[in-house]
């Protein structure tokens, strides 16, 4: 289901009418594209899924820009590699917390 912002954007696109107008060298508007003219082919638009340009194999290398400093001013932490040992420790700790919570909220003896 689209979000409210996406729905507003879709409605806005439907409200506006877009039409292509071709103008010849003398300034006259033409209904259709004159013979002998081809529309310019544009390069594909940049991906909007968060990937960086040039990250695909076979693409041109792109000069890397220096990243802006983070708000905290310190480097981000790399998460540790997942392991069964860590998962069991966390599960056991959560089990103890749930047991204590249930024991305090239980009715009766």
General form: elongated
Biggest pleated sheet: 2 strands, antiparallel
Flag low-confidence runs.
none
Strand content: under 5%
Strand order of the largest sheet: 1-2
Mean of residue pLDDT?
77
Oligomer: single chain
What is the helical fraction, as a range of percent?
25-40%
Query: What structural class should be given to the helix and strand makeup?
Result: mainly alpha
Distance between the termini: 48 Å
Q: Tally the helices.
A: 2
Number of β-strand runs = 2
SSE order, as H and E? HEEH
Instruction: Tell me the radius of gyration.
Output: 30 Å
Please give a structural write-up:
It is a single chain. The chain is mainly alpha-helical. The protein is built from two helices and two strands; from the N terminus they run H-E-E-H. Strand 1 and strand 2 (29-30) form a beta hairpin. It is elongated and about 95 Å long. The model has no long low-confidence stretch (mean pLDDT 77).
């Amino acid at each position: 289901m689209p979000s409210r912002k996406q729905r507003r954007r879709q409605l806005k696109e439907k409200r506006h009418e877009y039409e292509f107008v071709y103008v010849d060298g003398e300034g006259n508007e033409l209904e259709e594209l004159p013979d002998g003219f081809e529309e310019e082919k544009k390069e594909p638009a940049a991906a909007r899924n968060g990937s960086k340009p040039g990250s695909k194999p076979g693409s041109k290398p792109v000069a890397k820009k220096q990243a802006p400093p983070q708000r905290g001013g310190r480097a981000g932490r790399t998460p540790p590699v997942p392991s069964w040992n860590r998962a069991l420790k966390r599960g056991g700790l959560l089990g103890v917390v749930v047991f204590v919570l249930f024991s305090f909220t239980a009715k009766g003896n």
